[in-house]
């Protein structure tokens, strides 16, 4: 019994604050204010999502994807409020990992920390690959063409080459023709084509060096790039508005709700980043006051920009043309504004760099915090005596992100990023319910507004079931056509969603839970049901590897075990 309970041993807020200030070479430099945090948040959020994945989401869902941005933003607001309460209660690095340690105990803390490592690493791989595409496009605008085999991964190129052989060149898009040509012209060792995305690897190396040197330098670089980035987005919205053709907004949802929701991973990826602010809590001058403000400001600013830019993109060209990696530049090219497309390509390179910077800041600080607790090797918590950054963890992050970015394709990573993030968000929302229930929130300078969900959670569940039975006949028919094995394979998460809602209805009635964290859990869980099962399999394998490391190293060496 003792061994079992030790898996859920918890740290007090006082313990965490003490550990943060007693690390090797002291703590981190406290220099960030509200403006810096908002800048870092926007740097992370307005990144590869708006400059690349927004095109794919619009292609699948049409103009109605703008509503999906609003729905996803609402889910993020519930989560951001929960993050803000935790950041106010536990103002140290570590993000959801640290919060889980306080609320649920060590095993859950390890699981969420391991999931966050995946989130930040995979996010940065996507951002680095997207940066490379814009960078190569920008160089072409200046008349510089890099060899194709140095700018693309082998899987994408070989698939394009195989498609060309089976269907012919005429059936390939311009990008597929480029990829097939790169595969044909690549140097070979025997039958193996040597191909790598060199720009993605180099930019990761340079950003890692900047993050290693210090938070002050990173902050300055981020602030400059964010001003430029917001300027570009506003330029697209204002200039593009003059070329909007209202007929392009009809039909508004050409593929129905299913088409809109198929863009969940891409749209949600566009919002991932606001939680990265919480990893810098220890370098914040007044985290209890500034963290909550920064998170809410970021989400409001970015949601307005996203909705406007989606409406402009789908208004300038038909949604069926937006399946491209650089949609912002593309829509201006289609309208004969090559100069504007060039400005956007150059600016996009700088804008996406800022997102890369923030993620590369976040991951080493999670490793550092886990190492302080004894769950990872001691070297991860080493603070550089001169630069006051987690030096070893930063270098490892560079390798973990840079090497896969050299060789893998972006599509694979986008969905996988969302799996880890949804998982973290749900635990943070659930953690706030625990803090409130145990009275720990009493010391927080910011708390999620309390709205009693005693009856409301259950009433909304009944309304949802009635609504589904009346208006969801198509959904019910889909389920009826599936065998039991197919339901388990494809609909298990949906079943878990409804069971969770029922359980939360009972617990809300019993414990007077606040409706906002409950809404955060349910909206994130619903969005999770829209992701593919293959992503969950990979995520489960990742968690299994993490548990092996925990039980072979962290469980015995945890500071709470000493």
List keywords for this structure.
562 residues; Amino acid/polyamine transporter I; two-stranded antiparallel ribbon; globular; transmembrane helix; transport; Putrescine transporter PotE; CAT_C; AA/rel_permease1
Commentary on this structure:
InterPro entries: AA/rel_permease1 (IPR002293), CAT_C (IPR029485). It is a multi-pass membrane protein. Its main location: membrane. The protein is mostly helical and 562 residues long. The chain has 3 domains: 2-142 and 199-429, Up-down Bundle (Amino acid/polyamine transporter I), CATH 1.20.1740.10; 154-195, no CATH class; 445-561, no CATH class. Helices cover 72% and strands 1% of the residues. The chain has helices spanning 2-6, 13-21, 34-45, 48-61, 65-89, 96-103, 106-141, 154-167, 174-185, 198-213, 215-241, 256-261, 264-271, 287-316, 327-334, 338-372, 391-407, 410-438, 456-471, 473-480, 484-511, 515-529, 533-557; strands spanning 188-189, 192-193. Strands 1-2 form a two-stranded antiparallel sheet. A hairpin with a 2-residue loop joins strand 1 and strand 2. Helix 4 packs antiparallel against helix 13 (264-271) and helix 13 (264-271) packs across helix 18. The longest helix has 36 residues, at 106-141. It is globular. The model has no long low-confidence stretch (mean pLDDT 81).
